[in-house]
Write a sequence for this structure.
């Protein structure tokens, strides 16, 4: 008896043998391995070859012992899910969620501290999150999650800087992986076998955003954006981190043809969201960016009652749902950039009769779209936002564009002691502030389009009134950016920023020459056809026709495409493309036309190189005939001097046919496949 | 009466008018302007032209109101200093300190918070530091000091990344200023008028190191390296920051011909430092880097009694003062890189008889140089260091090389609760730890040569036993670096790293072919003559002859220069050069030779381009004759395949003569001007 007790005692004191657990995707092509050998870590294989090497897990806390080495795998649980769910609006209606799950418990043999990591393997990628249940508040100093890229010295990447003054508004760099130091997510890379990987996160709630810092060559470590007091994340001890996600695909388009981010988000918490309406809009906006109008009062004031009524008329006449009006409220006349406290969110300028406008809108059938520019003074906004949303609700406003124009790290809040604190747009504080704004708006049945936002991590699933956001260099940079967005920009965004979620890019500029044509002025570095293609290539439930109405009236032929194209989709397919080079998208409209069924749309864009793309129409429904209405660059078109030359042709097509599309330098093509 | 009281009352409540104060350098060429208009800021002009535009001052605290806008200049005081002082050792004996000083008091009219900024303008640059006297502890979250470079879009810069895993050990980048995102200091830039500026700091004590982050284009903001809990600097409320320094010169050599950093440091606090001895050394070190020996025990163990005695003999025979021995102590046999706790600083390996070695050294007249590698486990070192220094003192060791090999952010300390905390090499914690190490060593009359150090900020003035440090990519990278240091590296260091203080580069590799010649292997990318030039070009009070003794014995002709060259100087002059291209240094030995006077030495190095330099010997004393012993690249020499071809010639020279030196690709020249 004693002898066996002794043996038992000895066994209990021996260190547990290192364990490795395996989790495969439903189709078996992706494998996750999780191990506690030396320190908790994971690795990922694709078709049996490592793509992510041994990558550590863990945290350094500021007020407790760290989760570093020494933790053992003490338990694991598995699950398999094969389901689908329906979006109230989106790039697709039905989303399939098929994954295998592994929840691993790590425990420290001495301190008994424990945490879990939940891993999910999908056919299009993996995600994992930490789940901590401590009985004491834990402040995270540093998250230790690594992404160790295999064969890093042969990989290339597309990225923007991780903690810049200009937030997410940078041109994407294409470089050897080695040259990416501190980067934002989504972070896209391609290894020597052509495997494309994008690192991002899903369900960023009550936590700091993750950027990635290349520490040892090829190993990227999570770098959390800190509070003004330096702490990364403040928790009460019981928390789940956001999901750390890896899109994994054998080619570029596979990154786009994925619902990884949405599938890792919580279901809709708002209940009935029939009041959330995708649509198209115009607005008193571009005129200010090209210096025709001012936000502030004066003879060039854009946001006047008369002008807004003109826009509402134009919107109604042309099938647009709303008119965004910027510069309507008190505050624009001062030094608002340095002092957002000047803004009132309830008091209009004297020449903006919001009630008359609301009445007129109701009369003609187009709504005012609201605008709340905070200039980073978020406490000033928060204390007014209930009143502001209430006012808008009374005025029939169903959608608000918010703004947080301020340098990175310069969001101003007033703390509990009445002192000013300066935070990052993507620190834990603002992550909460943006979401509170959306939740508050929902109480008033108002949807939100956030500019200068937190990155998209799929929360539109949980809060479907969070329609869209900016979070990249949009059309405005073509008005005054130094430099404007180059021709490759859209093909860059498609495989990086757009993997996160919809973008309010505000496409559709028809007049490229407000500063003169050529390649040395501020203007969209694009052809006219490419501007049309954007409505299909860049997904957003709300799309602006961004130019001045007069420019659309000058080109009714091109404008027709904008009038036709929907913004809500049954299905979307990335057909072809390469990161930063070109992309071809196909989308099926969600709302079936009576008697004929659903149209399809194609959009194709290229970079500074002309390109001829062949689109095989094998995604069309068999037995149906479509009229392809093709808007493509003229044979001599190119973006610098001849952007307007566009051919519009029609042809009948069926499933299996091929369309050849010519894309000029900086060009594109847009096609409506009208169901007959 | 009432009326005037009313006026008085009104005046008192009116905001103070914006003030601007001016401070000029003694020769009037540099002007500092300090203003409280909008927010406290400064600017710098050179020859009447702005070089630094309006640059903010201030702090964000985590536990008090910020020092941002709204502070007024409420007082100022001026002083003029014209003095000189003597270094116990250095690149020059007599240092002139001529400056004008302005101390500005800033006060907030409402909160009454106040702080001072002390500005000093020298002919070779400016420095300023904050002086805070609050009666409550203040934790700094962010320092707001800016350096706004005028005409930034036309400027170029030379830099290394500011917070990399490899600390300071990066190749210098040369780029447009716009492409420098987060950088270390010294940070060197050149504007369109050829004005060279280097941003750095002096007297970094009890504070976090400053890196620079380019926020708005052209504006660099101080970015302090944080503690593991995220706070940048913890103070008791009464503190001076380090001096923020700007070397300003009309050309590249002007940056080197400056004592700005030393002049801003406090005088010697150690008293009699006659026990601090500059000199030259050899060591059991390179053999491990080229894989001939091991640090750990075994048949190739470098640090044996027999081998050390051989080196001591060689050192004594050739005029070297000491022998560095690495791998002498218990700890090297385990996984020391991941666990520095394995190191004992008092227990030698069995095959290293430290007493026998000490006795032998005393016998032949050369000392053992100690080695304390911590591998970043600083608590393990601290608890042993008194015993370790005491042992060394008994063994006649007068100098110790310390090491902190660990990735940036991975210095491990044990906190007051017994928990592991991971800190940066250049956070406030380690700034204190490195200095405590030096102060402790002084108690045992031991000097310190710190590897993987905190950057040099001139504290050798205050603690003259802090002889040298690494803090850049040194010779070891030529053994195994990926890649090795390229030919331009020395000309880069001279105008960047070397502005901070001495570097233990460990020059003098004579055998370039241990992995084969050519340009595709690990080897010094240098000619033999350039290796000699390093002894003059890169200042250090302790210089190693880094190669294996056998390689010196094979080239007694070249070795003669190393035997002759001193390491302590009366005077140093940068004669010519351009950042990253080439540099020509002249130095006058400090110790006069009996009967003949002081020799001068010249060193010149070039990058990958061959270069012929003309040196006008107008710095020589009039009326004296010198024998120039010239060691220069042979006419067909070049670093890749013909590095060894060297011409040695002698000629008589006097003041005013000219020497023409041919520098091969990757080459150099070394000259002893022997006083006759």
């Amino acid at each position: 008896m004693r002898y066996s007790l002794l043996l038992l005692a000895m066994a209990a004191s021996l260190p547990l043998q290192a364990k490795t657990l395996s989790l495969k995707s439903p189709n078996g092509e992706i494998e996750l391995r999780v191990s506690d050998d030396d320190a908790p870590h994971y690795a990922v294989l694709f078709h049996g070859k490592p793509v992510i090497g041994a990558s550590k897990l863990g945290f350094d806390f500021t007020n407790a012992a760290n989760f570093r080495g020494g933790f053992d795998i003490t338990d694991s649980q598995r699950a398999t899910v094969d389901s689908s769910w329906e979006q109230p609006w989106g790039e697709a209606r039905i989303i399939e969620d098929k994954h295998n799950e592994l929840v691993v418990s790590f425990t420290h043999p001495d301190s008994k501290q424990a945490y879990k990591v939940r891993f999910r393997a999908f056919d299009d990628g993996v995600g994992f999150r930490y789940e901590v249940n401590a009985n004491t508040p834990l402040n995270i100093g540093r998250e230790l999650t690594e992404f160790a890229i295999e064969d890093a010295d042969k990989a290339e990447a597309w990225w923007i800087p991780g903690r810049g003054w200009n937030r997410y508004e940078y041109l994407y760099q294409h470089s050897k992986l080695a040259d990416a130091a501190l980067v934002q997510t989504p972070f896209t890379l391609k290894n020597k076998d052509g495997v494309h990987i994008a690192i991002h996160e899903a369900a960023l709630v009550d936590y700091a955003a993750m950027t990635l810092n290349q520490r040892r060559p090829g190993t990227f470590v999570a770098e959390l954006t800190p509070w003004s007091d330096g702490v990364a994340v403040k928790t009460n001890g019981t928390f789940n981190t956001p999901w750390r996600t890896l899109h994994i695909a054998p080619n570029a388009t596979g990154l786009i043809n994925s619902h990884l981010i949405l599938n890792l988000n919580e279901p809709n918490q708002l209940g009935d969201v029939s009041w959330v309406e995708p649509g198209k809009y115009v607005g008193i906006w571009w005129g200010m960016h090209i210096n025709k109008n001012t936000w502030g009062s004066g003879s060039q004031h854009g946001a006047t009652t008369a002008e807004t009524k003109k826009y509402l008329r134009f919107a109604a006449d042309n099938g647009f749902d709303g008119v965004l009006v910027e510069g309507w409220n008190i505050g624009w006349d001062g030094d608002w950039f340095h002092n957002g406290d000047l803004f009132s969110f309830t008091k209009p300028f004297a020449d903006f009769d919001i009630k008359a406008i609301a009445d007129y809108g109701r009369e003609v059938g187009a709504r005012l779209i609201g605008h709340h520019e905070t200039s980073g003074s978020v406490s000033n906004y928060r204390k007014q936002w209930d009143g502001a949303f209430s006012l808008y609700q009374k005025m029939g406003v169903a959608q608000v564009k918010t703004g947080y124009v301020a340098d990175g790290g310069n969001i101003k809040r007033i703390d509990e002691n009445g002192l000013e604190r300066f935070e990052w747009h993507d620190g834990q504080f603002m992550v909460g502030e943006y979401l509170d704004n959306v939740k508050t708006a929902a109480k008033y049945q108002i949807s939100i389009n956030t500019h200068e936002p937190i990155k998209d991590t799929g929360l539109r699933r949980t809060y479907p009134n969070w329609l869209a956001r900016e979070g990249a260099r949009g059309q405005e940079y073509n008005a005054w950016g130094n430099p404007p967005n180059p021709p490759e920009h859209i093909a860059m965004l498609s495989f990086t920023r757009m993997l996160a979620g919809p973008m309010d890019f505000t496409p559709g500029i028809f007049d490229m020459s407000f500063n003169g044509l050529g390649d040395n002025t501020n203007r969209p570095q694009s052809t006219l056809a490419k501007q049309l293609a954007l409505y299909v290539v860049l997904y957003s439930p709300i799309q602006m026709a961004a130019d001045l109405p007069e420019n659309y009236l000058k080109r009714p032929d091109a404008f027709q495409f904008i009038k036709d194209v929907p913004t809500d989709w049954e299905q979307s397919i990335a057909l072809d493309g390469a990161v930063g080079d070109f992309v071809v998208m196909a989308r099926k409209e969600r709302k079936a036309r009576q008697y004929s069924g659903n149209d399809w749309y194609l959009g194709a864009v290229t970079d500074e190189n002309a390109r001829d793309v062949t689109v095989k129409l094998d995604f069309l429904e068999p037995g149906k005939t479509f009229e392809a209405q093709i808007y493509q660059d003229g044979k001599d078109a190119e973006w610098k001097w001849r952007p307007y030359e566009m051919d519009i042709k029609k042809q009948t097509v069926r499933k299996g046919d091929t369309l050849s599309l010519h894309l000029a330098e900086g060009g594109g093509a847009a096609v409506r496949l009208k169901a007959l």
In short: Residues 378-394 of chain B form the longest helix (17 residues). The two ends of chain B are 86 Å apart (CA to CA).
